[in-house]
Structure formats: structure tokens, C-alpha cells
């Protein structure tokens, strides 16, 4: 191989490299133009979205400007907590008071019961006098005739109930035959 042939090979290689670079340049130019148009469309859409987000941010900010500051909400929350603590302390006080004074309530109820239901004296010293042992011993037990009268009254009462039931049954049967 000669030097001329070697130079010719180098020249041919450089020509092929140049041709390849020109083809790449032309391909990249059209690709860059397509990319630029796509990126400009994307850029406009991003700007539209950014403007909408700014509009939402501004409307939110103007809406929140009508509300009071956070210290007011914290004050209301603190007030509610204090109110609940006060209410719980009030309830605990009355529960303790209820437990401590149970005997007084029992005595009041006992006096009311003795006075209104049993129709007996209320005070303890009168109650002791009321149940005098002499009175209990002087009262004789009931006699057989008193028991018999009581049972007779009981039997007559049930006989009357039975007769009323039978009469209503007869009336109902008479009405059913008429119908």
C-alpha cells in the first residue's frame, strides 16, 4: 500500500463521517423542531395549570380572610375544656355529697313512710311508746268464730265472682244465639 492510497482511505473515511454527521444533524434538526413544538404546547398547559392553581390559592386565601384567627378557635377550645372540667367537678361534688348524706336521706324516707304509709308516729320515742308491750299482751288472739266469719266472707266473695262470671257467660251465649 502506498501513501496515496492510504490518504485516499483516510479521505474516504472522513467523507463517510461527514455524511453521517450531516444526516444526524438533519434528523436532529427535525426532531428538535418537533420537540420544541411539543415542549411549547406542554409549557402552555403548565402555565394554564399554574394560573388555575394561583386562582384557587387566591380564592382560598380570600375565603379564609373572612374567618377569625386561630387564637379564637384555641380560646373556644380552652373554654369548652374548662367548662367540662367545671361540670365534672360539680358532679363529683354532688356524688360525694350524696354518698356522705345517705343516712339523712334514709331517715327522711323512713319518717315519710311511717307518717304517710303506716300512719304511725314519726319520732323514735313515740314509736317506742306506740309499741307498748302491755297493749300487745292485752289483745287476745282471734277466736274460731272470727276465723270462720273471715273464711265465710272469703267464700262468699268468690261465690259472687263465680255467679257474675256465669251470668256474663249466659248473656254472651244468648247474644250469640240471637245473632
From TrEMBL:
<protein>
    <submittedName>
        <fullName>Uncharacterized protein</fullName>
    </submittedName>
</protein>
<feature type="transmembrane region" description="Helical">
    <location>
        <begin position="71"/>
        <end position="96"/>
    </location>
</feature>
<keyword id="KW-1133">Transmembrane helix</keyword>
<keyword id="KW-0472">Membrane</keyword>
<keyword id="KW-0812">Transmembrane</keyword>
Amino acid at each position: 500500500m502506498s501513501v496515496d492510497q492510504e490518504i485516499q482511505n483516510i479521505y474516504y473515511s472522513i467523507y463517510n463521517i461527514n455524511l453521517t454527521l450531516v444526516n444526524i444533524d438533519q434528523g436532529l434538526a427535525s426532531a428538535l423542531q418537533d420537540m420544541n413544538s411539543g415542549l411549547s404546547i406542554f409549557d402552555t398547559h403548565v402555565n394554564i395549570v399554574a394560573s388555575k392553581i394561583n386562582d384557587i390559592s387566591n380564592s382560598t386565601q380570600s375565603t379564609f380572610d373572612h374567618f377569625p384567627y386561630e387564637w379564637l378557635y384555641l380560646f373556644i377550645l380552652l373554654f369548652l375544656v374548662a367548662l367540662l372540667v367545671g361540670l365534672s367537678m360539680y358532679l363529683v361534688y354532688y356524688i360525694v355529697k350524696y354518698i356522705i348524706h345517705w343516712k339523712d336521706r334514709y331517715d327522711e324516707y323512713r319518717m315519710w313512710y311511717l307518717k304517710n304509709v303506716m300512719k304511725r308516729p314519726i319520732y323514735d320515742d313515740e314509736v317506742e311508746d306506740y309499741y307498748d308491750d302491755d297493749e300487745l299482751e292485752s289483745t287476745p288472739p282471734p277466736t274460731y268464730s272470727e276465723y270462720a266469719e273471715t273464711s265465710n266472707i272469703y267464700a262468699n266473695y268468690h261465690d259472687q265472682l263465680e255467679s257474675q262470671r256465669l251470668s256474663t257467660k249466659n248473656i254472651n251465649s244468648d247474644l250469640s244465639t240471637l245473632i
